[in-house]
Every structure is written in structure tokens, then in C-alpha cells.
Design goal:
This protein is of the alpha+beta class. The protein has a single domain, classed as Zn peptidases (Aminopeptidase, 3-Layer(aba) Sandwich). Helices cover 35% and strands 11% of the residues. The chain has four helices and three strands, in the order βαβααβα. The protein has a three-stranded mixed β-sheet. Helix 1 links the parallel strand 1 and strand 2. The mean pLDDT is 96.
């Protein structure tokens, strides 16, 4: 996991594992929506999730193009965009896939304003 808002495309024509910006026709809309979420999240907006084992990983403005981060061939986000005209971003909300119950209230606090801002934009 990480703490970042990722947007299409997750796949790239070259299928290089990382580092290829794969721009969609609606790239500016996706960046706008991703920034709406990330800019209201206290960790995500820093662009430095500081996840164990990935302490040096950074994301400008707390967002990333999926394929630039890592290439995912056949992902649901891209499929829904191409075949169903569904605009989706992927929200990585924690370094830990299953945070302990004791941390859930803090996770809610971290994401509440982001969720409301995102809903307002949508």
C-alpha cells in the first residue's frame, strides 16, 4: 500500500514496469479529481507517505499517473474508463492493507475532508 491518489492510465503502450506517463484523453479531469482528494488529506498532500520499505517514495501533490508509478496491464480502472466511460481514480489510503482497529478512527479523520471534497467535485 501507499498513500496516494492514482489516475488513468495504469497501463502503457510499452509495458515498462515503471516511469511511463500514460496520458488519457481526460487527463486534466483525472488530475483535478485526484488533487481534490489528495489536497485535503494530511498525509497524501505531502507527497511523502513514508511507508516502511518505501521511505524514499514521493508523489508530487500526492497524486500519480498509474503507469508512471507502476504499469498494470488489464486493470479495472482502465477497463471501466475505456469500455464504460466510467471515470475512476484509485485511492491508496494506507501503507498497511489491514490497519488495526485502534487506527480506524484516525484513518477516518485523515479521509473525511478528502471524501467530502471529492464528492463535491463529482
Amino acid at each position: 500500500g501507499s498513500v496516494v491518489a492514482s489516475y488513468p492510465y495504469d497501463d502503457s503502450p510499452t509495458h515498462k514496469p515503471t516511469g511511463v506517463y500514460s496520458k488519457s484523453a481526460d487527463d486534466e479531469v483525472f488530475k483535478y479529481l485526484a488533487k481534490a482528494y489528495a489536497s485535503n488529506h494530511p498525509i497524501m498532500r505531502t507527497g511523502k507517505p513514508n511507508c516502511p520499505g518505501e521511505e524514499g517514495e514521493t508523489f508530487q501533490d500526492g497524486i500519480t499517473n498509474g503507469a508512471q508509478w507502476y504499469d498494470v496491464e488489464g486493470g479495472m480502472q482502465d477497463y471501466n474508463y475505456v469500455w464504460a466511460n466510467c471515470f475512476e481514480i484509485t485511492l491508496e489510503l494506507s501503507c498497511c492493507k489491514y490497519p488495526p482497529t485502534s487506527e480506524l478512527q484516525q484513518e477516518w479523520e485523515n479521509n473525511r475532508d478528502s471524501l467530502l471534497a471529492f464528492i463535491e467535485k463529482v
